[in-house]
Specification:
Length: 319
């Protein structure tokens, strides 16, 4: 079955991780669903839905969202200092989320906080539970954020660039921790990053965003080993191997990411794409290629499968 999807729509299977590759957003707010960059004012072109148990997270009321948040779904962000209150202890903050959704007593909440800190690998959790965020290292704060996010066993964890601010070693530890916790809890994860190395490590499925649109999706193996979209190809070409260096910049491709306020016509990638001649007829600049998916696999590009096979052959040989 071939299905053309306009905009962005995806569902995540239980216990799986969807990696979303795209430009880092800025000015993320913890208080609303800017989570996927979908609600940034400069991303308003995006239409779509994010279904959690049949409920579209992009249209639920703020109140309903408040109920879901922390309970059914939780989020972690890059900037743990901005997300944690400096005036409350780590234990109070983990405990508060727990109490809000379970009605547990303060004492029970504290015990739960210690349990969660243990789970995320904080040493001496029964002591550190009374620390304030500034007493934790960056890596420990990110662990505490994860503890807070998972305290109510959410079905969905949205992690928006959660490791970007950390050094590579700590980054890898956090990714390992998330994978372990996912094994244990079956939580589904949406992991947003510009870092393909992290995607290679953690994702089951991958969605590649360009200029506010989904340009390619598939399983990790499909997308990383047999990319269909020139943008994905460009991203991957800057990675020596899938297991190689982790720190891949977002724009190894000549040119700059498009303005979303005034996006390029047709295919938004066309000003930077080296295959427009092959498509010919000025089509790339005039006609937006639809995202064509077959069983969750596909891309949005005017190149034919035969053309891709020919032009992308060099790449395939290197993996
Ligand atoms: Fe490049 Fe054209 Fe494909 Fe866009 S549609 S990625 S410009 S070949
Ligand atoms: Mg974003």
């Amino acid at each position: 079955m071939v299905k053309a999807v306009d905009g962005l729509s995806f569902d995540i299977e239980k216990g799986r991780t969807l990696g979303i590759v795209g430009e880092s957003g800025s000015g993320k707010s913890v208080t609303n669903l800017t989570i996927l960059g979908l609600h940034h004012p400069d991303h308003t072109e995006i239409e779509g839905e994010i279904l959690l148990d049949g409920q579209d997270l992009l249209t639920v009321s703020e109140r309903e969202l408040e109920r879901l948040r922390g309970n059914k779904m939780a989020m972690i962000f890059q900037d743990s200092l901005a997300s944690l209150s400096p005036y409350h202890t780590i234990g109070q903050q983990i405990g508060e989320t727990y109490r809000k959704h379970t009605g547990a007593s303060k004492r029970e909440a504290r015990a739960r906080a210690v349990e969660m800190l243990t789970k995320v690998g904080i040493p001496q959790p029964d002591l550190r539970v009374d620390d304030y965020p500034h007493q934790f290292s960056g890596g420990m704060r990110q662990r505490a954020m994860i503890a807070m996010a998972l305290v109510c066993d959410p079905e969905l964890l949205i992690a928006d660039e959660p490791t970007t601010a950390l050094d590579v070693t700590v980054q890898a530890q956090i990714v390992d921790l998330l994978k372990d916790l996912q094994q244990e809890t079956g939580t589904s994860i949406v992991f947003i990053t510009h870092d393909l190395g992290v995607i290679a490590d953690i994702a089951d499925d991958v969605l590649v965003m360009y200029g506010g649109r989904c340009v390619e999706r598939g399983t990790k193996k499909e997308v990383l080993r047999a990319p269909q979209h020139p943008y994905t190809l460009g991203l991957l070409s800057s990675m020596p191997t899938l297991d190689g260096p982790v720190d891949v910049p977002l724009s190894p491709i000549p040119g700059t990411p498009p303005s979303l306020l005034n996006p390029p016509s047709g295919c938004r990638f066309h000003p930077r794409c080296t295959f427009t001649e092959q498509v010919g007829g000025g089509r790339c600049a005039s006609e937006q290629p639809p995202l064509e998916l077959t069983a969750g696999r596909g891309s949005a590009c005017h190149l034919t499968a035969e053309q891709r096979a020919e032009f992308f052959a060099d790449f395939a040989g290197t993996r």
